[in-house]
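Morning, I've got a small favour to ask if you have a moment. I owe you a coffee for this, so here goes:

…
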Amino acid sequence: MATDHRRRRADAERNAETVLSAARDLLVGGSVPTMSEVATAAGITRMTLYAHFATRELLVEAVVRRAVAETDDALAALDLDALDVDEALDRLVRTSWPMLDRHRKVRLAAVDLLGPAALREQHDAAFRHVEHLIARGQQDGVFRTDLARDWLVATFYAVLHAAADEVDAGRLTSEAAPSTLVSTLRSLLHAH
């Protein structure tokens, strides 16, 4: 009995991962797929899909949560505390940009389906790295202290996503975005 239960559980976890990957791929491709399209792409029935994700919103939320967790893991591996503040800022931006760039269309779908506030809440795990870096920069006297840390974190978030919007609009290339972001964020964060 226990073996059957473990096998069913493993199958369910594999199905959920397959669904998340299929949904992410469809979203990255620029479409907001129907549940039927996700089920077809995942190679499962709609009934199986709905057993894992009752609504498209829950599915998109899970895709975003997974992308943010991957970003959080990548940023945690950087050991930003071992670098000076400016070097850490550069590395943080250059590591996080490709992930955001890859998930630009996911972000647009998430804003549309979940709303900007829900999407921002999803990012809190990854943005703890930004908050920590800004706090360290303020303590070291490198970053400005005349503005609240929360505001600087929110502005960092907004600038990063503005770059994604500019790439979508064709006014900034994906390749130029990291350098543009580093320059913009340094001018924003540095004490004057």
